[in-house]
Design a protein that fits this description.
heterotrimer, A alpha+beta (152), B alpha/beta (446), C alpha/beta (445), A: 152 residues, alpha+beta, Alpha-Beta Plaits, 2 domains, 7-stranded antiparallel sheet, 5 helices, 38% strand, B: alpha/beta, Rossmann fold, GMP Synthetase, Chain A, domain 3, 9-stranded mixed sheet, 4-stranded antiparallel sheet, 21 strands
Amino acid sequence: MKIQQLSVFLENKPGQMAGVFDILGSNGVNIITMSTADTEQFGILRIITREWEKAKTVLEEGQFVVNLTPVVAIQVPHKPGGLSSILAIFQKQNINIEYMYAFPCAHTTEAVLIARFEDPDAAIKVVRESENFKALTEEDVFKEKKACEIQS
Amino acid sequence: MTQLATEQTIWDKNESLPREELEALQAKRLKEAVARVYQNVPFYTKKFDDLGISADDINSIEDVRKLPFTVKTDLRDNYPLDLLAVPREKLARLHASSGTTGKPTFAVFTQEDLDTWSDLCARFLYAGGLRKNQFAHVAFGYGLFTGGFGLHYGIERVGAGVIPAASGNTRRQISLLRDLNTETLICTPSYALNIAEVAREEGLDPAKDLPIKFGHFGGEPWTEDMREAIEAELGITAYNNYGLSEVLGPGVAGECPCRNGMHLQEDHFLFELVDPQTDEPVKPGEVGELIITNLTKQATTLLRYRTRDLCVIHEDVCDCGRTTRRMGRVIGRSDDMMIIRGVNVFPSQIEEALLSVEGTTPHYMIELDRPGNLDRVTVSVEIQPHMFSDKMTEMNMLKRAIDKEIRTITGIGVTLNLVQPQTLARFEGKAKRVIDNRFTKEELEK
Amino acid sequence: MTAALDQIAPFHPKSSPDYLPVDQLRQLQLQRLQQIVQHSYDNVPLFRKRMDKRSIAPSDIRTLEDIQLLPFTVKTDLRDEYPLGLLAVPMKDVVRLHASSGTTGKPIVVAYNQQDLGTWAEVMTRTFAACGLHAGDVVQNAYGYGLFTGGLGVHYGIESLGATVVPISGGNTTRQVMLMKDFGTTVICCTPSYFLRIIDKANEMGLDLKDFPIRAGVFGAEPWTDSMRRRIEQLTDIKAFDIYGLSEIIGPGVGCHCSAQEGLHIFEDHFYPEIIDPETCEPLPDGTEGELVLSTLSKQAMPMLRYRTRDITAIYTEECSCGRTIRRIRRIGRRSDDMFIIRGVNVFPSQIETALLNVEGTLPHYQIILTKHNDMDQIEVQVEVTSEHFSDTIGALERLRKKLSAAIAEIIGIRVNLRLVEPHTIQRSEGKAKRVIDKRAEAES
């Protein structure tokens, strides 16, 4: 149920981000979603892609430091209160989210939340036991995105 | 400054002994020093026996060349106190300076040594205008570093008021200087410029609004351009002094009102200048490595200590009336030691810090510059896969851990940059780890 | 080394004024009080003005009880007379100046002439002698050096005792442990909380202080308890002694533990103690708890008459088993104002406010939280983020955090852990937030 996220170490200076996406683009890696975290001096780029194995190889060849991190993808209703209701469940179960980001599917009623947990298995269990939310497999996520693409 | 030169500025009669008398005193003290270490310091006993020499062979100051050199690593190898020449109970003070690795080099003093030290600092302070009825502001760090204490006791010896401001909080230092109407400022030359800059930020004209008239600066290399800038900015007369804790601390040499080189305190030390490659004496007027022999220090007596400092020695007679020779500014080092905010730092210490946090030594680079007249050290470390985490908190923790370890080992704070692999320059053979952008060779030699 | 120590003549405490017969001591005190009142009246305009206002002349001091006729001196007097309005000797005779932080960022300056430095070294030597130190001891001085009186006060005392001074100053705990081991330190001087930090660091390094030659610690500059003392002694097999002092009076050296470790002897031949009710200012008899008031009996450069220390204590009525005739006060447990002491540094909430105001322009809601972590005092300043300075980049928030904490460190002299918190998360009571929450005692029990 966990999906792979690529994390890339980036110095906080012009051109660094472009370097990563040049490599990914020229190697035919399509990105489903991504987020960045920044500090004054360096940043961490987090990427979800179907071609994560290839992406890792080509980025490492380009002298980037890349890690794989298991994260959880959760389908939530794309409406006001959708996110807050899943967060309420985690809070109730005392499950801590380390960080998260999300992507919506335009013209559908669903959005996908990507989150990193201290204990991803516990989080998945809670999601499964809930009524309105679904923990997505890798396949689901990429299908989901495809659906978006077609509709948009 | 020229007014002062005509006044009486000599603190001790030994500063102006006729040369023959001074050299006779040196020869006598050298023989005593050699006899003392032969008897009390096994390290030297062995060296002398190996060379087949004894105090009997030392009858003139030229005979010093028969003696073996002492180097920084000898101090490390005899850590902590195997070079001690007196019983431990006789020690009144222990200081330390950076070693080439995490272990410091101790500098120890008997009460008699402390008295000599105070006197030697009083010599250059008095030559530079400090008098009994004045205040002197010490903005050197106190602690194991010898700088702060040497000057502190020197001021006391002169009889002036000491303001032990130590380091940090420049705005508070400025208000103290102003409020107490302090005449003499003591710190590193770069900190003097920093004081001027902060005073400007506070809307003051440092030359007019700060009461200081004299400055004694040392503890790090500086240039004539910096002297001019300090004098103009602060409206003072700036004096240079020299010392190192291995043989004493500050007080080894200092300028007189003529300010054409620092008078070597030859009654307490024997100075030589050698070519660092051949170990042979350099020709008069040439740059060489300064070699110092302790003549009077009781707690430890180092013979022919290789300072690694490069300078010239002026032999001509000075107008001030002192008969001692004078050393020029230190224009470089014959090893890779850096002096940062007055603290000696070796690249090997940074390496040790990285090793202890990481388990391996990643590729790194040290860059020195001086924004706002304060030394800044930037250590760039190439990140390796095992160091990287997708969690910001873990990355920040890594950064802090390296930071802290460097601070623990070197005693200074650095700006730490984590950089991507393969982005730092590579060198054939011996890696050049340090880029010093503070000043050029030309500026130093001017 | 220990064998050689025995051959060194110890300091002879019996010859010190600590053991003067009480009537002789009172006689000496009265004589000195009369002199110092005259000296202060003649040379310090503030004292003269206040005495004149009460129609008191120096000649009115006929008995020790007459000290009660004199006006009090308070901390703000030192600030108002900044820098040297209270100086009682010509400026040229001053040979040392120290400064401590004031309530609003302006420091308080204290001055010494040569005789005062002699007195200071003397009381520190008597302090060390009372703690059983002697020539030949290797004393590691980890109090901060500089304008703070702690470092240099202790330093000169060790020197005049004839022991070896290791002037390591504060910080770099790894080095403290390494030096203690490699150089064979026999005595350490620092704040008690810092010593606990050193113990922890030694453990982290796989070392046990019980294996070291260290045998005594001289601790002060912050309040601590007897249970903390016993813990230190159990963990390290050393004797832990408490000392007391304040810059306004002289620095460290006002009072100290003796071998009995029961209360702190005040060096009354130099510092005359009284206890008053902090509300009514009425004198209280020995044995009753109140605020300690001290008068310097011999200090030349900057004498203090009836200085209100704000420290709450009581004077012991019984004689001490050690034989010293100088009286003892109870360990200082608390203070009568809002100042708090952290790692030996005096801090007022108003200083933190000044710093925040300097950076922000307006005063944000903040709270100071004092805790103990690994026995070290921790200070956290929580500041509510307002929408004006919120930024979506972590970098900008980090810069703000660093700027605030640097501004605070610049004023109070110690680093704080600064935490940005969401608006309205700091509790307010009746509109006014409680500024200081001290949880340090909880941690200890």
